[in-house]
Design a protein that fits this description.
The chain is α/β, with parallel strands linked by helices. It is built from six helices and six strands; from the N terminus they run E-H-E-H-E-H-H-H-E-H-E-E. The chain has a single domain, classed as Rossmann fold (3-Layer(aba) Sandwich), CATH 3.40.50. A hairpin with a 5-residue loop joins strand 5 and strand 6.
Length: 197
């Protein structure tokens, strides 16, 4: 099955941990989305419910008259008390830099009052399995977030989460995969292309 994972366009808040904090797409963010979707046809679209992903997914689905599924499991990681704050401000706090390092180095470490990367991977894995189990036509476009896309890649490609920081997924990046699951239910994936904005 062909699956395109598309990170929503920029909101103009680079350097901020916007998980459940939900700023709207900026005009350049809309341009990034349109550039990645123009002249391309997907039979269905799956989107995070967060407005910065959902608004563009809804717009595409409306224009192409394709099916749209809003799936909360594709939401960005919940950064808890860090949510909506800049990395710089968090790192400047006593123990903040070490806490951020531990959080990014170990998938089991939770953000304060938030989720861990392992939590994110568990729910994105559920969402990915639902897509792979569909009997409907492919390809499928998933409009989501950088963290959720990394979790999907980890699930489908078998890459450890902590190594996925070496793959830059800027706002507006589209990653095309061929994916499926074997008779034993084990998922597999192969990257076809990565298009950065």
């Amino acid at each position: 099955m062909r699956i395109d994972l598309l990170r929503h366009g920029t909101t103009g808040r680079d350097g901020y941990l916007d998980g459940r904090t939900d700023p709207p797409l900026s005009e350049p963010g809309w341009d990034q989305f349109r550039l990645q979707t123009q002249s391309r046809i997907w039979h269905s679209v799956v989107s995070s419910p967060l407005a910065r992903a959902r608004a563009a997914a809804e717009d595409y689905a409306r224009q192409t008259n394709c099916a749209l599924d809003i799936d909360a499991d594709w939401s960005e990681l919940d950064f808890g008390r860090w949510d909506g704050r800049s990395r710089r401000d968090i790192a400047a706090e006593r123990g903040g830099e070490a806490a951020l390092h531990a959080f990014h180095a170990d998938p089991a470490v939770r953000a304060p009052n938030g989720e861990s990367w392992a939590d994110l991977q568990a729910r994105v894995s559920r969402a990915t399995r639902r897509i792979l189990a569909r009997s409907g036509p492919a390809p499928v476009l998933v409009v989501a977030h950088g963290g959720a896309i990394r979790a999907a890649l980890s699930h489908l490609l078998g890459w450890p989460l902590h190594q996925l920081w070496s793959l830059r997924i800027r706002p507006g990046t589209r990653i095309t995969l061929e994916a499926g699951q074997g008779d034993d239910g084990v998922p597999w994936g192969e990257i076809v292309e990565i298009i950065q904005p």
